[in-house]
Amino acid sequence: KQGLVVFLCFHDAKEPNLNKIKSDITDVVINFKGAVGAVYVSGDDKKEDSFRGKFKIQLNETVLFIIQPSGRAVAKLAGSDITKTNLMKAVVSSCGGGGCGSGCGG
User: Fold this and answer.
1) What is the distance between the alpha carbons of residues 78 and 32, in angstroms, rounded to a whole number?
2) Predicted TM-score of the model (pTM)
3) Residue (of 24, 105, 100) closest to 68 by Cα position
4) pLDDT tens readout for residues 45-86
């Protein structure tokens, strides 16, 4: 089985657009079923402070990284740039480099 492209979403606990962001992410995950997954890290989860530090994320930021199966971050979207269109483009471009194997494109 091929590895997953992962959306790693750090979000502020008070992010006003969080429901829309999560909806767009879910739509893309469903579109690329079996090739894309999502992980959410909330700004109010103190256990995740060191993880956030590794990515240099501030508590009040909403940022999404696209991580290839190799573990390499290949794209970063922030705030209002986290849209279904941009997520789709990021997955397609990361898969275009051979990162997803045959799982891409559904």
Assistant:
1) 21
2) 0.84
3) 100
4) 888 888 888 888 877 889 999 998 888 888 999 989 999 999
For the chain, the maximum distance between any two Cα atoms, rounded to a whole number of angstroms, is: 38
Q: Label residues 25-53 b or e (16+ Cβ within 10 Å = b).
A: beebbeebeebbebebbbbeeeeeeeebe
How far does Cα 11 stand from its chain's mean position?
11
The radius of gyration computed from the CA coordinates of the chain, to the nearest angstrom, equals: 13
The DSSP code sequence of 37-64 is EEEEEETT-GGGHHHHHHTT--TT--EE
Give yes or no for a contact between 28 and 66, defined as CB atoms under 8 angstroms apart.
no
